[in-house]
Structures are given as C-alpha cells and as structure tokens.
Write a structure and sequence with these properties.
The chain is α/β, with parallel strands linked by helices. It folds into two domains: about 5-170 and about 215-240, NAD(P)-binding Rossmann-like Domain (Rossmann fold, 3-Layer(aba) Sandwich); about 170-210 and about 245-280 and about 300-315, UDP-galactose 4-epimerase, domain 1. It is about 45% helix and about 15% strand. It has twelve helices and 16 strands. The chain has helices at about 15-25, 40-45, 55-65, 80-85, 85-110, 140-160, 185-195, 215-225, 250-255, 270-275, 285-290, 300-315, and strands spanning about 5, 30-35, 50, 70-75, 110-115, 115, 130, 165, 165-170, 170-175, 200, 210-215, 240, 245, 265, 280-285. Strands 3-2-1-4-5-8 form a six-stranded parallel sheet. Strands 6-9-13 form a three-stranded parallel sheet. Helix 5 (about 85-110) runs parallel beside helix 6. The protein is globular. It starts with a strand and ends with a helix. The model has no long low-confidence stretch (mean pLDDT about 95). It binds 2-amino-3-ketobutyric acid. 2-amino-3-ketobutyric acid binds near residues 80, 118 and 171.
C-alpha cells in the first residue's frame, strides 16, 4: 500500500482507520473519501479528502486517477438494520458500489480491502464455532449483499487478478464515531448509557451471543491482512475474525465491575433480535490465525476497562 483511498472515511471504522493509515503511510498518501457527511477536525485537517459516492463509478475513477491510488479500502456500506428497512438502498450501495470499486480497481490495478460480516451467515449455518468455509444462506438483505460481495471479490481475484482481500467483521465496539444502523450497535450504546445515566435498555434479548471486537483490533486486522504475503493467503476475501463473544448479561456484568450501580432492562426489538439470532454465537477464526497471523489484543475485560476510561473522559468535556 502506497497511495490509499478510503471510502466511507467518516463512518465508524473509517474515522479511526484513516488517521492510522495516515500515520503509517504519510498524510498526503491517504485520501479520505466522503459522501454525505463532511469530515471535521483531524480527519479534515490532516490530509486530502474528496467526494466519493461509490454508486457513481466516474467519481471513484477520477479520484483514483487524480491521486494515482494503488489501494482502495472500501468501507462505504449500509448496515444490517438499515438494510432491512431500505433493501433497495442496501443493494445499490453494498452491491453496485462494490462492483464499481472492483471495476475501477481492475482498470487501474489497485488492491482492494472490503469488509464482509458475521451477517454473511444465516440460520442454517452452524452457529457455534462457525467454520471458515460453511453453509451461507442468510435471510437478510444485508447478508445477501455480504455473501454476494465475498463471491464478487473472489471472482475479481481469480478472473482478473485483482488483489482483493477482506475479513468478516463481528460487531465493532468503539468510542470515536457511533455505528450507524447495525444490529450489534447495542454493545456500543450500552457504554454511553452506563456512563451518562447508569442504566440501559437493551433491544437484544439476554442469552443472545454475538462475536465482537474492539476498534484497535479491527484496524489491526485490516492493515495486517493488506500487508500479508499473498503467497500465504488461501481465503483472501472473507476471513472469520473475532476477539470475544458475549450476550447482554455478560457485558452488563463486566461494566458493573467499574460502575456498580449500572442497571439494565430489556425492550426487545423483534427485527434486530431476529437478525441477531440468525448470526453466529462465536466464529472459528483459525484460518486467519494460520494464514496471516491474526491475533486480537483485547478481550472483554481489557476492552471494557479501556472503553469506560476513554469514554468517561470524552463525555466529561
Ligand atoms: C451490523 O450489526 O450490521 C454490523 C455487522 C456485524 O456487520 N455491525
């Protein structure tokens, strides 16, 4: 990676991955692609930014040509809950947007990183220790777009030699930018509410386990996979990666170690609950560990401690 375009750079992952890439590869070499939300603060000041709506192939191509981009980190996407509410938009952004990025990458010889998700699985998948290669019959629009994206990236690699790579992210927990419209968002909201109000109403039922990861590990996964030797990569586009698995009761109990008065009750959202129940309880990420040395730094206790310390400071300002 030398000159990198990040689409969705103001989103949950992009707003932290873009500055990290600028730190490693140089500010001028990392172009923040923005669409409706304009960048602010450090993201805006520290390097170039350009309007890149991935559904407009001409816009993607003109930025790639202007900056002689060699790597596209394609993060612009519609998340699971919004995708269920707006399936047309999810198809347009997650499928047609990805297709445009792959076409530009093929034409201009760029490498591409695209995240897939635990959403690429469904109820007929083995939900415990979900294998790398297994049944994928998701019953959500988000899942349909994620499986199709995995296949499309494999196709562009095999057919055209595009250096496509990606991981199946679990729920990402972070303290800079809120996630927008996912099923796993409760695991972020719970920290804000615990610190601000000492209570949280969960829309996910007790006993519903999902894979999760702290943002520093999500960033590490993207960078390490893109820097890995291609000779070692058998899977390329859809590596299972995880760091922890919990249900609402387990994360609430961990938060109570720091905020003893924290109370939680439930008001279950049937749409997001059904999505969560169709996703793995915990994935087997041994292929990522073997093929490119994946290993997370944060498990539940370390992530919880860091989230509470960092957010308490941020929210007190
Ligand atoms: C979502 O909940 O939609 C995302 C994901 C797991 O892909 N966070």
């Amino acid at each position: 990676m030398k000159r990198i375009l990040v689409t969705g750079s103001v989103g949950q992952i992009g707003s932290e991955l873009t500055p990290k890439l600028r730190e490693i590869f140089g500010n001028a070499n990392v172009i923040a692609g923005v669409n409706r939300t304009q960048p602010t603060g450090e993201l805006k000041e520290s390097g170039p930014f350009e309007t890149v709506n991935c559904t407009d192939i001409k816009q993607v191509e003109s930025v790639v040509k202007k900056y002689k981009v060699d790597t596209i980190i394609h993060l612009a996407a519609i998340l699971s809950a919004v995708a269920e509410a707006k399936p047309n938009l999810a198809w347009e952004v997650n499928i047609n947007g990805l297709y445009n990025v792959l076409e530009v990458a093929r034409e201009h010889k760029c490498a591409v990183f695209t995240p897939s998700s635990i959403g690429a699985f469904g109820l007929s998948t083995p939900l415990d220790d979900t294998p790398q290669d297994t049944i994928q019959r998701p019953n959500t629009m988000y899942g349909v777009t994620k499986v199709s994206g995995e296949l499309l990236c494999d196709y562009y690699h095999k057919r055209f030699g595009v250096d496509t790579r990606g991981v199946r992210y679990p729920g990402i927990i972070s303290n800079v930018t809120l996630p927008g419209g996912g099923t796993t968002d409760y695991a972020v909201e719970i920290f804000y509410e615990a610190i601000k109000n000492k209570k949280y109403t969960s829309y996910i039922k007790a006993g519903t386990f999902l894979d999760m990861m702290y943002m520093p590990d999500a960033i590490k996964a993207a960078i390490e996979l893109m820097e890995a030797s291609p000779a070692k990569l058998e899977h390329r586009n859809a590596f299972n990666v995880t760091a922890m698995s919990f249900d609402p009761e387990i994360i609430a109990a961990e938060i109570r170690k720091h905020i003893p008065q924290f109370a939680m009750d439930y008001d279950v959202d049937p749409v997001r609950q059904a999505i969560a129940e169709s996703w793995p309880n915990n994935m087997d990420d041994s292929c990522a560990r073997e093929e490119w040395g994946w290993k997370p730094d944060y498990e539940l206790p370390a992530m919880t401690k860091d989230m509470i310390e960092t957010l308490s400071e941020k929210l007190s300002q």
